[in-house]
Design brief:
Layout lengths: L5 E7 L3 H14 L5 E8 L5 H8 L4 E5 L4 H11 L5 E5 L3 E2 L4 H11 L3 E9 L10 E2 L4 H8 L4 H5 L8 E3 L2 E2 L3 E5 H7 L11 H11 L3 E12 L9 H18 L2 H24 L1 H4 L1 H16 L14
Parallel strand pairs: 1-2, 1-4, 2-3, 6-11
Antiparallel strand pairs: 4-10, 5-11, 6-10, 7-9, 8-11
Helix pairs in contact: 1-2, 5-10, 9-10, 9-12, 10-12
């Protein structure tokens, strides 16, 4: 029997229809590769496990008695993997023809890399900007406070013609060399939600390996299932960013970043009132709602995930 080249890791929680569609795309488009699929189910109650066992017998299904979250779930899946490469794949992702084979070929051609990724496209045909990210830094946070980052981040090249080193990939579609994954210890489980891949990419680069992305490998990412204006979502994102600052920056630098983040939230709320005649009432109300918890409760995110739960 040929050695497994790619271990595809999927962490699922109550996304039965989406995860089954994801798995169908894997088995439709990964033919020609020697691969295995490992699904960690985080105590789903929607029949996900039963559906997977019935329709996808080859899948290694690991039933967790509790919701481990994204980082712990992937770490558990990786411990059961035997491939030379680990492909982290969200359950709401759908592979397209040749997407995974293109990514594997790109990884082979750039063997000096520690991780490789492709482009995630949203259901409306636009590119998910999260597939190529800018890591947190004091400069970036200050520019964000001045309103100078949004356009720059949105216009980073994510076209089919792009390929090359990037600082951060999306955890929704990221391939990592197994040896590097084990060297850095996988995901830091202190990141309960958000910025896990930022921290992982940062630590991979510290080993001397580059992070690569190719626009030739593209998948569908049904990330639109969440509400982008949910205040809890923004709160969790801010906790993730602050967890990164607390881990990789000095205490003074992290405090400066936290102050700028709080000022940015206040600025957005005030701006939504001022710009309402031009932006419209609905959009401005949604913006205020999104930033409300970050602005009103800095103690809930100031220390990152320390002492905080979902």
């Amino acid at each position: 029997m040929d050695r497994v080249e790619v271990s595809i890791l999927i962490v699922n929680w109550n996304t039965r229809e989406l995860v089954c569609e994801c798995l169908r795309s894997v088995y439709d488009h990964a033919c020609g590769l020697v691969f295995e699929v490992i699904v960690v189910d985080n105590a789903s109650t929607d029949g996900s496990c039963e559906c997977i066992e019935k329709a996808f017998a080859p899948v290694k299904l690991i039933r967790s008695p509790e919701n481990l979250g994204f980082a712990r779930g992937n770490n558990l899946a990786a411990r059961h993997a035997s491939g030379n490469l680990l492909l982290l794949l969200n359950p709401d992702a759908v592979l397209r023809s040749d997407s995974i084979k293109t990514l594997v070929a790109y990884a082979r051609a750039h063997a000096d890399g520690g991780a490789w990724g492709g482009v995630c496209e949203l259901p409306n045909g636009t590119v998910d900007p999260g597939c190529r990210q800018v890591p947190p830094s004091l400069k970036h946070t200050f520019r964000s406070l001045l309103g100078l980052t949004a356009r720059r981040v949105m216009h980073l090249d994510r076209s089919e013609a792009f390929e090359g080193p990037v600082p951060v990939l999306s955890g929704a579609y990221m391939m990592v060399r197994t040896e590097i994954w084990r060297r850095v210890g996988g995901f830091d489980e202190a990141f309960t939600l958000y910025a896990e891949e930022t921290d992982l990419c940062y630590r991979i680069q510290k080993t001397g390996c580059d992070i690569y992305m190719t626009g030739q490998s593209r998948i569908l990412h049904n990330t639109g299932s969440g509400n982008p204006y949910d205040p809890k979502r923004m709160l969790y994102q801010t906790r993730g960013v602050m967890q990164f600052y607390r881990k990789h920056f000095t205490g003074m630098q992290a405090t400066c970043a936290a102050v700028m983040i709080w000022l940015h939230s206040f600025e957005r709320i005030v701006g939504s009132w001022v710009l309402m005649p031009w932006l419209g009432q609905v959009r401005c109300v949604c913006l205020r709602k999104r930033m409300s918890l970050v602005w009103r409760h800095p103690g809930w995110w100031w220390q990152g995930w320390l002492g905080q739960k979902l």
